[in-house]
Amino acid sequence: MSSLVKCPHCGLRPREEFTIRGEVPTPRPAAGADESVWFDHVYLRDNPRGQHREYWHHSGGCRRWLVLDRNTVTHETGDVVDASTLKSEGRA
Amino acid sequence: MTSFRIDGGTLIDRDDVREFTFNGERLRGFGGDTVASALLANGRQLVGRSFKYHRPRGILTAGAAEPNALLTIGRDGRRDPNTRATMAELFDGLEARSQNCWPNVDFDIGAMNGLLGPLLGAGFYYKTFMWPAAFWEKVYEPLIRKAAGLGRASYDPDPGSYEKCWAHCDVLVIGAGPAGLAAALTAGRAGARVIIADEGAQLGGGMLAEGGMIGNKPADAVLADMVGELHALPNVEVKKRTTVFGAYDDQVFAAVEQVQKHLSDAAINPDRAMERLWRIVAKQVILATGAEERPIVFGGNDRPGVMTAGAMRTYLNAFGVAPGKQVALFANNNQAYQTAMDLEARGIEVAAIIDPRKCPDIDYGGKARLIAGAMVRDTAGRKAIKSIAVRHDDGRDEMIAVDALAVSGGYSPIVHLACHRGARPVWSDEHVGFMPPENCDGMVPAGAVAGKAGIASCFVAGATAAVSVLNALGLNAAPAGLPDTQTADDIAQGTVAIWSVPSSKGKAFVDYQNDVTAGDINLAMREGYDHVELAKRYTTNGMATDQGKTSNVNAIGILAQNKGVSPGAIGTTTFRPFYTPVSFGALVGASKGFEFQPVRKSPLHGWAERNGAKFVETGLWYRSSWFPKDGETFWRDSVDREVMNVRENVGICDVSTLGKIEIFGADAAEFLNRVYCNAFLKLPVGKARYGIMLREDGLVYDDGTTSCLAENHYFMTTTTALAAGVLTHLEFCAQVLWPDLDVRLASATDQWAQMAIAGPRARDVLAKIIDDDISNDAFPFLAARDVSMFGGRLTGRLFRISFSGELAYEIAVPAGYGESVADAIMVAGKEFDIAPYGTEALGVMRIEKGHVTHAEINGTVTPADLGMGRMVSAKKDDFIGRVMNMREGLVDPMRPALVGIKPKSLADKFATGSHILKIGDEVSLANDQGYVTSMCYSPNLGHAIGLALVKGGPERYGEEVVIWNGLAGTSITGILCNPAFVDPENEKLHA
Amino acid sequence: MRYSALSLLGNTFSKNKNWKPAWRNPDPKPRYDVIIIGGGGHGLATAYYLSKVFGVRNVAVLEKGYLGSGNIGRNTTIIRSNYLLEGNNPFYEFSMKLWEGLEQDFNFNAMVSQRGVINLYHSDAQRDAYTRRGNAMRLHGVDADLLDRDQVREKLPFLDYDNARFPIMGGLMQARGGTVRHDAVAWGFARGADQNGVDIIQNCEVTAIDRDGDQITGVQTTRGAIKCGKLAMAVAGSSSHVARMVDMHLPIESHALQAFVSEGLKPFIDTVVTFGAGHFYVSQSDKGGLVFGGDIEGYNSYAQRGNLACVEHVAEAGMAMIPALSRVRILRSWGGIMDMSMDGSPIMDRTHLSNLYFNGGWCYGGFKATPASGYCFAHLLATGTPHETATAFRMDRFARGYLLDEKGVGAQANLH
């Protein structure tokens, strides 16, 4: 777990400024999607042992939602992007 | 008792005489002494009793690994149990006591346990104390608990203060022995930001025990030069008495600095911290933690007077303390011979050197008799060693009289910090020890921790390590010009492993503190606990306060020997933080007592205080809960009056703690429409609307009102509890789910002072301070807009909303004006008998009105459960929670739903949290019908009323039920009813 | 060998040379009727009850490390049955009843110590919630007492009553709650199961699961292929990882939880106490160490360790409750991986594969559940139907909306 997290908006900031929500699940389904697709989105998690994409919130900073790549075994963090980019890629 | 203090001692100051007591006896030592060195100087070899067998124990080490010499130091709130005498610095007036002995350390009744030795073998308690079953808690366990434990902690408050800091550096050097010092000097001279931390009171590590010369200079002068230069470098921070105790992710290191723990009570500055927690973030780390000398496992190896060879050398050279008059050395490596040389150099007789190696490759120039190929198999002496039994190579036994025995079984690199993040150390046959892991978690090990022996090679290793990390930082660096070491010989270790002496007589201890013997390890193996972790857990080896620093590798060695494999195949147990124990105080810092958490105060706090409010903690907030008047002694007196005054006249209540969120943007309406389950698309400017927000799982998250203040500008209120949560949720929706929507959010909770003015005269009061027309026609129920106040001097936001069910407004003004406006309202309302009311009265009125709070919105209810199912839009395509809200289990007609409840006999009382049963049903969880979510005494109705979530809900209005409170032993008959007890037709609201 | 006062005495005279191994160290057989993946508390308990109560003895427990190396050996040893919901409470009370007779049953002293558990409350709302909970317990015949401030003070005079940021108002006590020596639970179940013929195979990691259609046929392991009639997963912490071998996605995230022990002290605190204004729970072991813990770290993790921020939070909450802890030293911290389910309650059910059974999602409540989890899972494996106290732990409750959410925080794993 990084002591300093690279917020794409604020630069390197202390880990304590961030709040973690958890795994980025399947994209939020379209309104008319089947209930089972919604179930996957709301409840099922990949929960990998290794590289993991997760939502962080810069709650004590710019208050943007971010997506971090992080390893769940070593806790090493990789790329950080603003979470709004997921939608355009069909991943949120 | 004879003094064992001799000449020399680089650490002590003989002009600084310090008095202390040990078990009540007055003794003297010097400045620079540890409690251990002072006790030894006073001839006190027996300092404590062991955990299980209460065997007499002395001082084994001169450092952090000490398993035996644990003392309780200080008294009352300054009492530190389990303090290692080897680490505690002596101060004037120090009081030290032995632990785990009764009536005293010399005569300890508990020592009778020793006779039961075989009965109390490893894991004996798992096999017995089971009969009769009830005896465990009543008889056996109390006895065990009383006998177990070490020191006694004080219940008195600690008068000391503590603090925490962050520190950032380019290079963190952990350990200030020769390798660490050379590394810090190299890095410091290269201009890097360096922190060098060492647990000792003085820098120097192993150099402190050097009595002789380094090059052509005395060792202490060399050390003084190096330390002096480090202190003079502005980019180097030197932290003495600072133990780096944990390595965490991303090069965050936890360290604790003893700021004043080594000072006498009189010398303590109350304005300074006793201890300081450092969270050090380092770009590069040099691990120069040294190596721990291992004891050897042989019969009677725990007798006071038995000491590691290195410790003996430290007491001799650094503290000027002779370990005895006739000393033997039992060692399997060359380095330990230095102790014998130093003893002889100081005129102390070395009776024998017992070396299990048949042909030790060493040229010992001293007088001592060298017995090669031999082992010590036993010791004798009641409370201190008197003699040793040596088993010669040819099987012959010989008794040698000694009053101290130095032991060295080789050296274990102190790899803890390199392994805290999960890496495993690597066994080395060459070094006969577990070495730092290959990829040492970003740390560069240097010196003894990496298997180097001797000061010269440690200097070089430290400097070389520093160059490598400096290069990694992009700095050009050369090894520091280091002291000339040409004549300081490095002694190759030449260790030959012997873990336990096979011919041992009597108990041979592996873990001194937990009284684990070689026999215990063998027993664990025989019983199937042969994995190193199982052996540890079964025997408790390595689980004492020293965490196995002197015992773990020996235990592994014994397991390996018995299995006929390499210790590397056995592996180690897991190295975990903390390297040495750390006080709660240091980890807590200033966040204690009332300062545990910050306090949030409403902008109207002062106003409420002036009006005599009683406050209640609501999360971090202080909210005014009621306002007692003269003569009101019972809280209900005030609350009932406040409620009646609102219902009959008018009241004012601080609602500033509600969450407030400003929402802007061209798509703000669409956004609200998606986050609320009810329709928000067509909320006109100047109107407020009650909204229910679901989670994506279809259950209610929060409720509140949102007002449209202008085109594309909305103002949302949330409950106090979820102010932050709702904002975070909205941000998630706006940024992640619908980044295409043009919407911006900002918290305004702290920007506005907001108060509710409720009661039939509310409009009369507000009309006196608001310039605009607020008549019912001009400002009807759910109107919301900016208003001019006090003749245009202030603009406020006025909302006609009501939680109490009365004609009510909420007026928000910029926070700084809050108290003045509240005062003005009080003045304006005086003629209408306005009175402040608090959260208690608010709670009563909302229950009377059947309004829900988080007592009902408990995270498991749907809008339908709360009687608001019709609010859930069937027309909207999409909103948060729409699909999951329709799941089978969430529309089950037998779900609990909101009802009112009142006692059949109106004089009866009942409590929130009571459960509901059908009349006549057996009392069982299966028959549970629901529970009372909220209750109060209604001064309007003159009896208790409540809200409840009950299976079937409104279908059951009129049904008589049992209100069951088994905790209080009460059970009354209640009647389920409509939750709107007051004004169900909403006439007051619209008045 | 049966442990008794006599056997202990006899072995004393023979200098403990004649103790037999507590369990065998068998090589895997080619086939078992039931293979249980996971030699932790739940897996071993399942094997024990399968072989003892349900007569299924051709059973193997496969453990990738040493037996008891999962969360059974890294928890804070607390047992209690103070649950709120109808789907949970009877199960945990069943577990408590099993604890109460466990040691005599498996002939191993696990030091079940019913020292009492007190949950403090600091506000009216917390008191009301505990009233609801205590009454739910009472409805099921579980002991529960609501203590006021004075009653708590009498039992725990050393808490902070005078200068607390969140004053203590009282507590909910379950006198039958307490602590158990955690490792000994694993060993007792292992020894008992072994004596009934169960093969406990250590250092045997399952690397793949073999299927034929919707049937499991066996497993591939680091000690070779093994066939089975039924396959049971009891690998909480790694549930998602193992489930992935059969393409199963779970409503579970793995999170790290730290626990701590202080230096040994003479008796300092007699009961289990939990703080209501922060995350902290503490008891004192028979050996004298204060054993305590706090909240999960908050990020998904398979590393059995945590970070410094959580250490500090736990210490702060601890001292807010017991100011005298200031000079008590913390000896060691460690970490375990929690199967955090999406409603905070466990899952014990059949799966989409006809002979694969799942047991997991215990969040941080798995230790107290160990005996009942083993018993009920054995019931499910042997009879095909859930035990009467475990009918709510269905896998499909999330899809159907019959959630077991004691905290009411919804589908976010790290909030439970």
From TrEMBL, chain A:
Q: Which Pfam families match?
A: SoxD
Q: Which organism is it from?
A: Thalassospira povalilytica
The protein here is known as: Sarcosine oxidase subunit delta
- InterPro entries in the record, alphabetically? SoxD (IPR006279), SoxD_sf (IPR038561)
Q: Could you name the domain of life of the organism this protein comes from?
A: Bacteria
TrEMBL record, chain B:
SUPFAM superfamilies to which the protein is assigned, alphabetical: Aminomethyltransferase beta-barrel domain (SSF101790), FAD/NAD(P)-binding domain (SSF51905), Folate-binding domain (SSF103025)
Q: Which residues form the SoxA A3 domain?
A: 505-587
- Any Pfam family: SO_alpha_A3
Look up keyword Oxidoreductase and say if it applies. yes
Q: Which domain of life is it from?
A: Bacteria
In this protein, which residues make up the domain named Aminomethyltransferase C-terminal?
A: 898-983
Q: Where is each GCVT N-terminal domain found?
A: 604-876
Is the keyword Oxidoreductase assigned to this protein? Answer: yes
Keywords assigned by UniProt? Answer: Oxidoreductase
Family annotation (InterPro entries):
2Fe-2S-bd_N, BFD-like_2Fe2S-bd_dom_sf, FAD/NAD-bd_sf, FAD/NAD-binding_dom, GcvT/YgfZ/DmdA, GcvT/YgfZ_C, GcvT_C, GCVT_N
Locate the FAD/NAD(P)-binding domain: which residues?
A: 170-301
Family per similarity comment = Belongs to the GcvT family.
**Entry protein name:** Sarcosine oxidase subunit alpha
Record organism: Thalassospira povalilytica
The opening ranks of the lineage are: Bacteria, Pseudomonadati, Pseudomonadota, Alphaproteobacteria, Rhodospirillales
Automatic annotation (TrEMBL), chain C:
Q: Where in the cell is it found?
A: Cytoplasm
Enzyme Commission numbers on file: 1.5.3.24
- Residue ranges of domain Rhodanese in the record: 34-78
Q: List, separated by semicolons, the cofactors it needs.
A: FAD; FMN
Note the coiled coil stretches, chain numbering: none
Broad EC category: oxidoreductase
Report which reactions are catalysed by this protein.
sarcosine + O2 + H2O = formaldehyde + glycine + H2O2; sarcosine + (6S)-5,6,7,8-tetrahydrofolate + O2 = (6R)-5,10-methylene-5,6,7,8-tetrahydrofolate + glycine + H2O2
Q: Which InterPro entries match?
A: FAD-dep_OxRdtase, FAD/NAD-bd_sf, Rhodanese-like_dom, SoxB
Which keywords label this protein?
Cytoplasm, FAD, Flavoprotein, FMN, Nucleotide-binding, Oxidoreductase
What family is reported? Belongs to the SoxB family.
Q: What is this protein called?
A: Sarcosine oxidase subunit beta
Species whose genome carries this gene? Thalassospira povalilytica
